Structures are given as C-alpha cells and as structure tokens.
C-alpha cells in the first residue's frame, strides 16, 4: 500500500518534470516560431543570426533575460511588484495540470494517464485559475507606480473579468453535451464527432473570449505598446519580465490545448498516434493565433466592451437555451 | 510731470525723460543702437523709431530724441514704424561683413539680435561693401572696424563720459572711422567699457577672445574687489576657468561702467601657479590631513606656550565671512584677536573713518556726480579708486568745481584745481579752505566743540601762490549748494579722517547739505575695521615674534611679504616661528614659505559679501565651482579622456570653513562647535555686531545695505585744538617719501593678472622741479634712493604737479621697496644720487 | 437586414485579411542581409561626422560654437583659439557619438560647411570611449560635399588676403584723404 503510494508519487514527479520541461521548451520555441512567422508574413526573415535559422534565439534570449539587471522602480510597491510576475507564470503552469494530452500509456504494467491530474471539476478549475491570473496583471500594473503600467493593469482587469463571463458561458453547452466537468471525459465524449461540428457557435464564442482572456491581438489593449509603452509590464526587466513573457506563451499553448480538448476532440483521430493528433491540433490553433496577430489590428476599448457584454453574452445564453432544449428533447 | 500712453499703457515720468526710457520703465524695450542710458541720446542710428499717434508730435519719430510730453500716445508696434526700423537695420547691414562666426560679439551682439528680430536675412544691395583697416588698440581691446554701424557710443563714452582723448571719430560721412590717430595701447584706464557698450563687434574683449560664446558661460553677479569701491560686475566662467568680467549696473555704486583694473584683474583666479592642494611643508596632502596636522601643532604650542603664543593675520581683501570667522575662532580659543592692518597708524585712520561716516554724511558715487563742489584730500582717484574719477568727471560735466589737495602728481580726466602740498600741510589747507568758506556763526550754532575746532584750526596756506589761487575757490565753495569732501586714508595723517568729517559737518551747517566720502585701501577694509576690536598691527606681531612671545603665526588670505615695510626683518621673524600656517588662493611668497598651507576659494567660487568704503554691504554669488581650468590640465589639447566624479584641483574651500573645521578639532570639550552653514555664521555676526543685524542673507542675491555706526555715538570735532599747522616743521635738508598707488601694478590681486602686467608702467620716482634743480638731477635719469636697509634704483621723473619737499614712489610690484624700518620716511637730500 | 450585411462584410474583410497575410507567408523575404550585403548609401545620408577642409587645404572650422549650440543633445564641445596668422580654429573639437542622434542640425548650422555628416554609420564597438571622437579623428583631407566654398573669402575680415581684397569689397577707406 505504502509502496504503491510512493511509486505513484515518483511517477507523478517524473511526469511532472517531463511535462514541465517540454512545456517550457515549447513555450520558448513558440517565441521563435512566432517571430519567424511574423517575419515571413511581413516579407522579412525573422531571427536568423543565432544558430542555423536562428534556432538558438530562445537560448540567446534566455541568457539575455537572466543576465539583465532586475530593476525595481524607486516608488514601486516592492513586495507586490516582485510577486506579480510569479502569479502570472504560476497560474499559467497550473492550468496545464488538468489538460489531457493523450489517452494514457501502460508502463511496467501500470497505466499512466497522459494528464497530470484528471480532476472531475477540471473545467471549473481552469476557469478559476484564469480568474486568478487577473491579479498578476492588475497588481503588476498597480505596483509599478507608473501611469502606463497602471492603465495597462486597469484595462487588463476590466477586459479579463468581462470576457470570463462569455468564456464560461460558451463552455456550458460543451459540459451539457459531455455531461462532465472532467477534461478527460469531455475528450472522450468527442471520440466520434468533435464538438466543433455540434457546437460551432460555442466554438467561435470561446475562441473570441479566450483570445481576449489571454490578451492577444486583436485584444492586446492592456499592453498596447503604441499607447502604453508595454502596459502593465512596462517597468519590468530581466527575468521578471521574462516570466510575464513566458506566461503569455504558455497560455497560448494552453489555449491551443483547451480548444483541442473542448472542440477538436483532443487526442482522438484516425491512424496517427493520439499524442501526435493532440499536438497537431494544438499546433493548428497556435498557428491561427499567430496568423491573427499578423493580420488584425487592435480593437478599440469601447468596441471591446460592447462586444463582450452586448454581443457575446446574449449569444452564449441563447446558445445554452437552445442546446439545453435540444439535449432535453433528444434524451 | 508728463503723462503719456505707450502701447496702451499709461505712465507718468519726470520732465526731460525720453520716450525710449519711459517705455523701458513699462517693460517695453524699444530697439536702440546709439541710445545708452549711461550716455544719453544722440539720434545717430534711427532704429528706435516709433509712431506718435496723438499729442504734440505726430508721425514716425525717434523715441530716443523725443521728450515725453503730456498727452502723447505712442505705438511701438505700428506697422509704419516697424517697417521703418526694418529698413534701418537693413541699411545698417549694407556694409556689415559676413563674419559673425569669427566675431567674438556673436551671441550677445545687439546688431545680430536686431537683424534677426527685424527678419533681415538676404542681402538685397548688390554694390560693394565699404571696408576699413583695423588698428592695434593695445592689450585689452581688439579692433575690427568693418563691423561699425556709426552709433557713436564709443566716442561718446571715451571722450565725453570718461574724458580721454586718444580714441575718437576720424574722417567724415560714409567714411567715419572710430579709432586712434595711430596704433597703440589705449590710454584710458576705462577703455574696456567701449567693449561693453559697442552694439556690434568693433571692439571685442581681447583677453577673452575665442574663449566661448555667451550661451556657454556660467554667468553670475559678483563684485570687484580690486579697490575699496566694490563695483558691481558679472562674471563668466567656462571649463573651470574664469574667462571674462563685465560691468553690472548698479544704481548707487558704479553705474554702467567699471575700470580696466576691475575688468582684467581677475586672472589671479586662473593663475597657473595658484596653489590648489594642501601642503605640509612641500609635501602635498589632503585638506583633511593638513587640518589634522595643523590641529596637533596648534594644540602643542598652546599647551607649551599658552594661548597667546599664536598670532593671526587676516586681510582686508578677505570677505566678511572670513574676517568674522577668524575673529570668532580667536575668541573661542582665547587667542589674541587677529590683526588686519599693517601699522597702528593705518588701523587708527581706518577706524576713525569708519566711526565718523554716518548715514547723513555718507554719499554714494551717484551722489558725488550731483555735487557742485568736490574737495579731495589726500586722494588720487584714478590710481586709488578709478571709478571715483569718472563719478567726479560727471560732476565736472555738470559744472562742479573740483579741488584736489594732495602732494602726489594727481591726474584726473578733466580740469581741476590741484594744490600740491606736503602731507603735513593737508589738514591746514583743508581747514583754511573751510574757514574761508564757512562763517564762524555756523560753527557757533553747532556748539562749543565745533567752535573750538573752528577757532583752533590753522588757516594758512603753505605758500603765497597757493593762497592766491584759493581766493576764487573759496568763493566757489561759499556759493556751493552741495559740497562733498573726499578723503583718502593712505597717505594722510592719523587725524585727517576726523578733520575731514568735522569739515564736512561745518560745511553742512553752513550750506545746508554736504557729503563725505572716504577712500580705503582694500575691498573690505571697512569690514575689517568694523569687525576687529583691537588696534594691533603687523608691526606689533613681528615684534612679538622677535621677542619670542609668539611662536606660531596663522595668515588668512594675507601676504605681509608684499606690504610689510621691512622685508628682511619679516623674513627673519618668520624663520623663527615654530608654526607658520597660511590659507590663501594666491601663489604668494608667504604661501611658499608656509609650514602648513591650505588652499582657499576665491570670490568667484563662493557666495560672499564685502563692505565697501561707503559702508555698503554688498553680495556676490559664485560664478563656478572651482578646480583647475581644463585648458591647464590638458595643456591646451582636448580634455582628458577619463571619467571622474570629483573636480580636479577642486579641494579649495572658503577660508572660513577651513577655520571652522580646524576650530572644531582643537576646541576643548564643552566649547562651542562651529557649523559650516553661512547662515549660522551670519547670525553670529549679527549677534556680536548689532550694526549688521538687518543685513539680509537668506536671499540668493540680496540688495546692498549700508551699515553705519549709530549716529551720535561718536564724539564730534575731536580734533579741535590738535591740528598742527604744517610747513613750519619742515626741514629743508630732507625729502619726505610718499608711497602711492598706481592704477596698474600696485593693487595686490590685480598684479597677478598677466594682462595688467603688460600695461603696467615701469615704476619711477616723482620729484618736483624745485627739489630736482637743487640736486642737479634731470628728468628720466636713473637714480638711486637711499632707504633704511639699502638703496633702490629707478628712473626719476620730474613733474611740476607735485609738492616740493616730497618724493613720490608707487608700491609697485616690480620695485623691491621693502627696505624701510618705519614710516614716515625722510630721505636726506644729498643721498639721492645718479 | 443591415446588421446581417454588416456582419457579412465584416467577416469577409477579416477573411480577406487572413488570406492576404497567408499569401505573403509564401513570398521570399525582401530583407537585405547586412553585413553580407552593404547597400551603397546616398551621399546625403546622415551618420558619422567629419570636419572638412577648404580649397586651400586649411581647416574649414572656425570654432564658432554654432554647431555645439544647436546640437539638441549637446554632444559637441570645442575650444576655439587663434592660430599665429590670426585664423580662428578649434584647438580641440570633440563629438561624443555615443550621444549623437545624427539629426544633422550641426551641419545645417555650420556657416563654413566644415561639419558634415557622412554615410559611414558603422561605429559600434565594445568601448564606449571609442565613440568619443577628437579632432584628429574627425578632420578629413577633402571638402566633403562641397569643394569650392571658402568662408574667409567672404567673411570681410583680413585672413586670406587683406581688407578690401575679398569678394564684393571696396578698397579700405583712406583715413588721410579728404576726397569723398
Ligand atoms: S565702433 Fe561700435 S560703439 Fe563705436 S560707433 Fe562703431 S558701432 Fe558704435
Ligand atoms: S573702480 Fe575699483 S571696484 Fe570699481 S572696477 Fe575699478 S578696481 Fe574695481
Ligand atoms: S547630428 Fe545632431 S545630435 Fe549629432 S552632433 Fe550634429 S546636431 Fe548633435
Ligand atoms: S558650426 Fe562649423 S565652423 Fe562653427 S564650430 Fe561648428 S564646425 Fe566649426
Ligand atoms: S537709439 Fe534712437 S536714434 Fe539710435
């Protein structure tokens, strides 16, 4: 019994480590990919100096970020200022704990699920954590004691709180269809037919709301560089800035994974091994995000708020009612 | 009083005010080239055109030539007037060269400013430009005649205002030329002012040529300390170097101008040999280390020989702060009070003068300009206090009578009556004149003392010709409405300041109004006399050293080796000292001999105050933060390529701060600690000397205030019955040696200026024709003069404008005159040889 | 109806944008690869500054301080002096390229055409002090963009030739003559 427990624990640690390393590496390379893609979309080369094709760029960036001076503005609220990037980075990593990225493998007679932990309220966990990352932004912006940071922080808080509502609502039909909050269950519910075909409205709502939630173009108002310097993280430098940065790219991966899980059927797919299917789906979503960034302009603040409250929420509610009716009707 | 309206603003001005001045009072500065508030209008340039819309004159007129009158409505912005001014500028530029980049006026040039303001940028006139050849005008002034716009300011200043003739207008019409008949050094000691007033770059400041543009300079208001008048100046510094000094307007002191000694005397600040590090003997150490060592030495001597074994010499060129701190230092330590004066006689004279100058008698230079009778006793203005000569000249231009009673060959740039009488005859001459002009009843009204003075004062002149000349002068004085007595303190007798003051009192009683103006030897002599309570002198200190009762000597910005009459004796005394401590900014002889040396800051590096001879406390701000000039550090090349945080050579501190630090180390526990705050020092001064109580010090640059000893505290007419009649005691076989000042070459600080050194005249001995013929000597012969401790060789000049029985010699830097045992010096006639 | 039309239009616009960016993704980049390829720059491009000489081969700069006055970042400093023959020149002249923003205002202000910006922009290095150029580093042996102009020929001060011998000048006024 005890042995069993210890073994489980060791497996967990190993799994955690592997996932963490992969996640961080992927996030780092995602930066490279994004810059490369943006470059090409603008008829440039993108990074191509550090190593072949600029492949060592993430490493160079890392070295740079680590060796840079970690400055704290004189008038900053020091404790909170130092804490904020940690909150952002940590929340991003924690969300990944419930994302299933494969069907599970069997090793030495033990079946190992390819998910860190299969929470039965996984979806709520995700929503909860994404709400907490608002703190990272708002506190970082406020503690810097700089007008740009403050404005960025305020914008971030307002935007994220507003869009959490449609994001949550858009997932209700998914839960209704899968009859579970567990992400593994949700994935499994789509083994025949991904929800994107059943719930296209939900998909679109979720995509938009989640984009706003992770503050990516066209919803990058909190860091709008041409208005606010760099918004809430204007005053950060070195690895602390790196944490904000890392958090952003991890959330991109998470968003890819979640869309894959909620709407694209997770690891399910013909022919190819499940993990490959999963990665492929994530990749497509991430590419789309970058593509959006290269294409769309930033929307105005009033447009942002109007869309959130006056368009997305009503549609999401309507969608729930319709889905509910259909579900009731068919059962 | 006429009331007029300029640009919609109303103003009331005195009759005779020009419209351009009335506008200036409203803050409207009408363009001008030829008008200068110090020189008045001539209407030569036509750029001050304004439109007269209503009133007695109409149309576009010159505002500098038009008296303000009732009912005038003037517009400076009127289109027609503006257009007129624009064209004036354009035609003035017609012949102007294209050389602003190499012109030193560029950046503060009135013509440049107005050309830009008038919008004239492209030359339309296609003809050729008139050119002139330039002249060599000496060490101070660079000449570039092509730039002239014929405003006549230079000539008006040089000839009319200052009274010198060697620079003026030549040629006529389109060819008018401003310069000298031939190349040569300008003769006037006020020549630098033409640089300030020329609205273009015809005359530029030669010593500061190319040092920088106005916008690059650190500039600040300051004071001239090269004589006791304390003219107001503006300093310019750049790259840790004082580069230039200009006149600053002062209503009551110097007006718009200063003299060349003041203008070019500041180079001691940049002197390449100026000591900038503290020294223990010859080894350079940090200032703190030197203070520590000094403290130990002082404690040792104090313990062994008691507190009176260390003497201190301050100086009259030090600021009030330094003088006061030295006194405070000595008092706290229980030492003897510091000494500020060479001889007991000098101390007494100055203290008497300071005591007698009260609020009612004291006059400023501006008031001297208004006097109609000026009587100077024992004063040689051009040489002792140059700007006074200009003030007197303004009085002369207003038809004042000016009389100088002085044995020296006094020159003034205007006509005056000179009574060359021996020093002993100064007082009798003065009292004779006063008695001639003031009726006894006036003295009677003033009381018994006055009457005694009046009755006992001698009334005879030394010889008949003088007596005859005095008849008319006495007449003039009798009719004068505002007589002023100017009294020197250098060559006069001990009692003369009192006699002058008493005479002024009598004159006031008789004429209703009279002024008194003393001259003193150095910038802060007045301050030293006010602050010091003892009448000790350098002579006494030297005696105590010789006796062995004084073992240590501390000099604070003082160099007795320059002025002590017996150089060898002083040197021997200093050699006997256990401790010889010097604080100074000059590379003086004393500084070289010092056992311990501390570098102090000059006036230009600190915020200070000085009291001029009129009792006016004046303030100076620091021009820059000191340090070795970049040009000296990099030997002319580019500045060193290193980063550092401190100022190279910037260790110097105000002497009073060094004193405070020293005091704080040596003070016994429980004694008062000195703070390094200037305000604290000033509150001490105000407490100890109530006369300074209302001196404002908190402001950045406060206005001057006059401090005078309380009226009625001094006994008036103390010299009653004491004035000896002179002449009688004169022995025919000796000549009295009188040592005077020269504009250039005798004043301590300015003798360190390499530019003034170039214009110094070679020292010579003046003798009257009568004495010369008795000795069979001829003009310009080299003679040797016997002094107590050796002979002195120099050129002889025979001049008939000086008193017989007297020989006059400058205390010149180039003259090793310090071979005198004691004053006064009588030279046996037969001893003067070729 | 209008809303639907708007919506449709909006969506097409978004898709069009996406299509455009996607199309460009397949294009070959147009970037020039510096330092492998160095594009020849126009003579008027603004980078490292030089001090030129006039046609006589003399330093043009007369150390008038105008460039240092106009420089918005105050990176020029100099000390003017007088050469033995009376020519005004900079005894030292320093430009701190670590501060210079290559705005070209100095060149515009210069009355003698002495200071000129050149296309040479490759100055980066590891020692910041190397970016502080002294006169020796700045002075070149040619006239830069203009080889003809000679300030002293027009200035009206006696430097190259006496008074009255320069462009557009009359002979000096004869003080001894009474003729008009
Ligand atoms: S030299 Fe100067 S001050 Fe004299 S007339 Fe010419 S411009 Fe005026
Ligand atoms: S008159 Fe005296 S105080 Fe005035 S500038 Fe000349 S030396 Fe200086
Ligand atoms: S280019 Fe601009 S910044 Fe550079 S030195 Fe010239 S004026 Fe200064
Ligand atoms: S503006 Fe031209 S002439 Fe004047 S200092 Fe600068 S480089 Fe020299
Ligand atoms: S200022 Fe009035 S004419 Fe020159």
What features would you describe in this structure?
- The complex is a heterotrimer of chains A (331), B (834) and C (180).
- Chain A is mainly alpha-helical and 331 residues long.
- Helices cover 69% and strands 2% of the residues of chain A.
- Chain A has twelve helices and two strands, in the order H-H-H-E-E-H-H-H-H-H-H-H-H-H.
- In chain A, strands 1-2 form a two-stranded antiparallel sheet.
- Chain A starts with a helix and ends with a helix.
- Among the domains of chain B are: 3-93, Roll (Ubiquitin-like (UB roll)); 278-340 and 536-601 and 652-692, 3-Layer(aba) Sandwich (Rossmann fold); 348-525, Dimethylsulfoxide Reductase, domain 2 (3-Layer(aba) Sandwich), CATH 3.40.228.10; 730-831, Barwin-like endoglucanases (Beta Barrel), CATH 2.40.40.20.
- Helix content of chain B is 30%, strand content 18%.
- In chain B, the strands form eight sheets. Chain B has a six-stranded mixed β-sheet with strand order 15-14-24-23-22-16, with helices on both faces.
- Chain C has five helices and six strands.
- Chain C has helices spanning 2-25, 66-70, 105-109, 135-138, 152-155; strands spanning 47-51, 76-82, 88-96, 115-118, 132-133, 169-172.
- In chain C, the strands form two sheets. In chain C, strands 2-3-5 form a three-stranded antiparallel β-sheet. Chain C has a two-stranded antiparallel sheet with strand order 1-4.
- The interface between B and C is large, with 40 and 40 residues.
- One iron/sulfur cluster binds at residues 70-73, 75-76, 95, 100-106 of chain C.
The CATH architecture category of the domain at 348-525 in chain B equals 3-Layer(aba) Sandwich
**How helix-rich are the residues of chain A, as a percent range?**
55-70%
Largest interface: chains, residues each: B-C, 40 and 40 residues
Largest beta-sheet details of chain A:
2 strands, antiparallel
- The total beta strand count of chain B reads 33
Task: Give the CATH superfamily of the domain at 348-525 in chain B.
Answer: Dimethylsulfoxide Reductase, domain 2
Q: Tell me the strand order in the biggest sheet of chain B.
A: 15-14-24-23-22-16
Q: What is the first-to-last residue Cα distance of chain B?
A: 68 Å
Helix content of chain B: 25-40%
Main CATH class of the domain at 348-525 in chain B:
Alpha Beta
């Amino acid at each position: 019994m005890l042995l069993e427990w210890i073994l489980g624990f060791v497996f967990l640690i190993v799994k955690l480590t592997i996932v963490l390393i992969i996640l961080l590496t992927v996030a780092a390379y995602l930066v490279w990919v994004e810059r490369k893609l943006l470059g090409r979309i603008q008829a440039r080369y993108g990074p191509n100096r550090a190593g072949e094709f600029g492949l060592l760029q993430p490493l160079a960036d890392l070295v740079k970020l680590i060796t840079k001076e970690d400055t704290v503005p004189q008038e900053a609220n020091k404790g909170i200022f130092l804490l904020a990037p940690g909150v952002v980075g940590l929340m991003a990593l924690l969300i990944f704990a419930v994302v299933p990225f494969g069907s599970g493998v069997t090793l030495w007679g033990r079946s190992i699920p390819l998910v860190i932990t299969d929470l039965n309220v996984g979806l709520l966990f995700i929503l909860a954590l994404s709400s907490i990352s608002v703190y990272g932004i708002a506190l970082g912006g406020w503690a810097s004691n700089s007008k740009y940071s403050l404005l960025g922080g305020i914008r971030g808080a307002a935007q994220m709180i507003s869009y959490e509502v449609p994001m949550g609502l858009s997932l209700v039909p998914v839960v209704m269809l899968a009859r579970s909050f567990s992400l593994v269950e949700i994935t499994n519910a789509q083994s025949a037919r991904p929800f994107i075909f059943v719930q296209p409205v939900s998909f679109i709502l979720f995509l938009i709301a989640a984009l706003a939630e992770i503050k990516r173009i066209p919803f990058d108002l909190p860091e709008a560089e041409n208005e606010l310097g760099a918004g809430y993280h204007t005053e950060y430098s070195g690895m602390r800035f790196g944490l904000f940065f890392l958090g952003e790219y991890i959330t991109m991966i998470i968003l890819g994974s979640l869309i894959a899980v909620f709407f694209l059927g997770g690891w399910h797919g013909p022919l190819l091994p499940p993990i490959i299917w999963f990665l492929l789906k994530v990749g497509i979503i991430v590419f789309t995000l970058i593509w959006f960034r290269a294409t769309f302009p930033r929307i105005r603040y009033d447009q942002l708020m109007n869309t959130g409250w006056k368009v997305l929420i009503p549609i999401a509610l309507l969608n729930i009612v319709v889905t509910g009716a259909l579900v009731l009707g068919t059962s | 009083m006429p009331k007029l309206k300029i640009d919609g603003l109303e103003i009331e001005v005195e009759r005779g005010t020009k419209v351009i001045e009335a506008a200036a009072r409203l803050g409207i500065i009408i363009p001008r080239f030829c008008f200068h508030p110090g020189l008045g209008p001539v209407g030569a340039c036509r750029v001050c055109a304004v439109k007269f819309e209503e009133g007695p004159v109409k149309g576009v007129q010159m505002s500098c030539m038009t008296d303000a009158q009732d009912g005038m409505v003037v517009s400076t912005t009127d289109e027609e007037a503006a257009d007129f001014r624009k064209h004036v500028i354009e035609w003035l530029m017609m012949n102007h060269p294209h050389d602003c980049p190499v012109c030193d006026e560029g950046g503060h040039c009135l013509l440049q400013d107005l050309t830009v303001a008038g919008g004239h940028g492209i030359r339309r006139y296609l003809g050729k430009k008139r050119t002139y050849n330039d002249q060599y005008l000496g060490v101070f002034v660079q000449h570039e005649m092509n730039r002239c716009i014929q405003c006549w300011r230079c000539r008006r200043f040089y000839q009319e205002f200052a009274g010198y003739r060697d620079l003026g207008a030549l040629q006529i019409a389109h060819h008018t030329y401003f310069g000298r008949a031939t190349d040569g050094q300008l003769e006037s000691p006020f020549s630098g002012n033409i640089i300030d007033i020329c609205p273009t770059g015809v005359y530029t400041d030669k010593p500061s040529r190319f040092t920088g543009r106005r916008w690059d300079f650190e500039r600040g208001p300051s004071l001239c300390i090269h004589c006791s008048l304390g003219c107001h100046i503006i300093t310019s510094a750049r790259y840790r170097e004082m580069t230039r000094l200009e006149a600053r307007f002062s209503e009551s002191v110097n007006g718009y101008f200063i003299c060349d000694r003041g203008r070019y005397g500041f180079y001691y600040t940049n002197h390449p040999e100026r000591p900038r590090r503290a020294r223990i003997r010859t080894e350079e150490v940090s200032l703190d280390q030197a203070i520590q060592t000094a403290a130990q030495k002082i404690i040792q001597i104090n313990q062994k020989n008691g507190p009176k074994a260390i003497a201190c010499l301050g100086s009259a060129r030090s600021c009030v702060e330094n003088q006061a701190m030295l006194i405070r230092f000595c008092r706290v330590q229980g030492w003897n009070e510091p000494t500020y004066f060479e001889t007991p006689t000098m101390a007494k004279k100055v203290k008497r003068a300071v005591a007698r100058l009260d609020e009612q008698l004291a006059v400023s230079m501006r008031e001297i300009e208004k006097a109609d009778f000026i009587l100077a006793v024992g004063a040689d203005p051009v040489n002792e206090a140059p700007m006074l000569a200009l003030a007197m000249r303004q009085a002369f231009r207003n038809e004042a009578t000016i009389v100088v009673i002085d044995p020296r060959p006094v020159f003034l740039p205007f006509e005056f009556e000179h009574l060359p009488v021996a020093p002993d005859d100064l007082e009798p001459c003065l009292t004779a004149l006063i008695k001639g002009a003031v009726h006894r009843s006036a003295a009677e009204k003033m009381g018994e003392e006055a009457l005694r003075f009046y009755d006992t004062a001698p009334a005879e002149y030394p010889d008949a010709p003088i007596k005859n000349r005095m008849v008319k002068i006495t007449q003039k004085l009798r009719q004068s409405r505002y007589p002023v007595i100017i009294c020197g303190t250098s060559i006069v007798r001990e009692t003369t300041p009192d006699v002058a003051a008493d005479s002024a009192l009598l004159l006031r009683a008789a004429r209703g109004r009279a002024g008194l103006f003393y001259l003193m030897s150095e910038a802060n002599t007045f301050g030293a006399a006010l602050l010091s309570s003892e009448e000790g002198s350098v002579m006494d200190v030297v005696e105590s050293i010789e006796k062995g009762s004084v073992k240590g000597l501390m000099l604070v910005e003082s160099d007795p080796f320059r002025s002590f009459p017996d150089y060898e004796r002083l040197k021997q005394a200093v050699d006997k000292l256990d401790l010889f401590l010097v604080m100074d900014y000059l590379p003086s002889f004393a500084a070289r001999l010092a056992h311990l040396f501390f570098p102090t800051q000059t006036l230009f590096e600190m915020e200070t105050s000085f009291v001029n001879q009129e009792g006016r406390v004046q303030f100076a701000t620091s021009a820059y933060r000191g340090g070795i000039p970049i040009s000296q550090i990099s030997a002319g090349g580019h500045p060193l390529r290193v980063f550092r945080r401190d100022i190279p050579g910037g260790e110097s501190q105000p002497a009073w701060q060094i004193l405070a630090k020293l005091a704080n180390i040596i003070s016994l526990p429980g004694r008062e600690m000195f703070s390094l705050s200037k305000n604290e020092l000033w509150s001490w001064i105000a407490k100890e000397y109530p006369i300074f109580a209302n001196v404002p010090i908190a402001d950045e640059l406060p206005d001057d205030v006059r401090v005078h000893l309380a009226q009625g505290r001094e006994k008036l007419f103390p010299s009653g019955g004491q004035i000896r009649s002179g002449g009688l005691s004169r022995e025919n076989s000796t000549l009295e040696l009188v040592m005077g000042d020269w504009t250039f070459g005798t004043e301590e600080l300015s003798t360190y200026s390499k530019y003034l050194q170039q214009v110094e005249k070679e020292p010579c001995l003046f003798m009257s024709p009568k004495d010369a013929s008795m000795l069979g000597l001829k003009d310009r012969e080299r003679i040797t003069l016997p002094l107590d401790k050796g002979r002195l060789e120099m050129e002889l000049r025979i001049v008939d404008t000086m008193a017989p029985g007297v020989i006059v010699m400058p205390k010149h830097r180039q003259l090793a005159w310090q071979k005198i045992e004691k004053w006064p010096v009588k030279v046996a006639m037969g001893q003067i040889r070729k | 109806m209008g809303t639907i039309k708007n919506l449709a239009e909006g969506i097409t616009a978004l898709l069009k944008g996406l299509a455009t960016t996607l199309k460009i993704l397949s294009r070959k980049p147009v970037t020039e690869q510096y330092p492998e390829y160095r594009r020849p720059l126009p003579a008027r491009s603004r980078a490292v500054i030089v001090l030129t000489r006039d046609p006589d081969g003399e330093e043009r700069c007369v150390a008038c301080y105008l460039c240092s006055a106009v420089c918005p970042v105050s990176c020029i400093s100099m000390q003017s002096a007088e050469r033995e023959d009376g020519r005004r020149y900079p005894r030292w002249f320093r430009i701190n390229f670590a501060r210079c923003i290559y705005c070209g205002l100095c060149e515009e202000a210069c009355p003698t055409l002495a200071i000129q910006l050149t296309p040479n922009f490759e100055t980066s290095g590891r020692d910041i002090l190397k970016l502080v150029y002294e006169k020796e580093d700045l002075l070149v042996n040619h006239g830069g963009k203009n080889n003809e102009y000679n300030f002293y020929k027009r200035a009206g001060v006696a430097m190259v030739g006496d008074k009255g011998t320069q462009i557009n000048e009359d002979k000096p006024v004869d003080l001894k003559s009474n003729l008009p």
